Amino acid sequence: MSDRAAAARTAAQDRTVAFVAADTTEARSAYQRLTRLYGASDPERAGVIVALGGDGFMLETLHRYLDREVPIYGMNCGTIGFLMNQYGEDGLPERIARSQPVTLRPLQMKARSRDGRITEAIAINEVSLLRETRQTAKLAIRVDGKVRLRELICDGVLLSTPAGSTAYNLSAHGPILPLGSNLLALTPISAFRPRRWRGALLPETVETVFDICEPEKRPVSAVADSTEVRDVIEVSVRVDQTHRLTLLFDPEHNLEERILSEQFVI
C-alpha cells in the first residue's frame, strides 16, 4: 500500500466523519437519519466526508473540498451512482475503516476567450469543447506544441481522465481507460472531417491545446465539468499535478473493477 493510500485509510479509521447531501428529498432524508445515528461534524474539519447523492453531487463535493484533499466516501442516493457506494446506515464507521482508497488526478483547463479573458478551471471527468450554433466547430489540435491535427470539423471534442472515461467520453464512443493507465482519452464528438478519425490515447504528461478556427463564424464553448466558458479561441489542458483526490470504496464496489466491467456491458 502506498503512503498516500495508508494515510487515507488512517483518516477513515481515526478521524471524524462529516455528512453532506444533495438537494433532493432522498438525500436530505438520508442526511437526517445518518446525523441522528452518527452525529453532525463540520466538513471543513472532518477527516472523512460522506457524500449523499448521485455522481453529479460527488463531482460537486470533490470540487468543493479540492484544496483539503480529504478522503470522500459516497453513498448513492441518486440514479446511476457509478462513483458511489451502496447506501446503507448500519455499521458505517466499520465500512469506512475497511474501504479502499482510489487516488485521482484532475485536469486543469486554461481557456482564452475572444475578448482576451483567461479562465482557469479544474475537471475531474473531462474537458469538452462544443459548438455553440448550428454550424460545426472547426478545430486544430496541438500536443506538446506539435500540430497533430490541422483541421477537425465536428460538433466538438473532449479530453477525458480514466475516471471520466465511462461518462461523456463513453457516450461519444471513446475508449474506457483503466485506472492507473496514465492515459487520457482524446475523443471527437460527431466528427464530419476527417470522417475516419476516432480519437487518440495520450500520455497524461502531455499538454493538449485546441485552437479554434473561424471563432466568429463558428463559435465554440469549453466546459470543465460544470464550468463553461463561451466564445473561446484557445484552450489548453494538462493533468493538474498540484491536486490529488481520494475516493473511498467498499471492497466489493471497487472502482477499478467497475471500470473493467463496463467494457463487457452489452
From TrEMBL:
The active site is at D55 (proton acceptor). Its cofactor is a divalent metal cation. It catalyses: NAD(+) + ATP = ADP + NADP(+) + H(+). This is NAD kinase. It is found in: Cytoplasm. SUPFAM superfamilies: NAD kinase/diacylglycerol kinase-like. The gene is nadK. GO terms for molecular function: ATP binding; metal ion binding; NAD binding; NAD+ kinase activity.
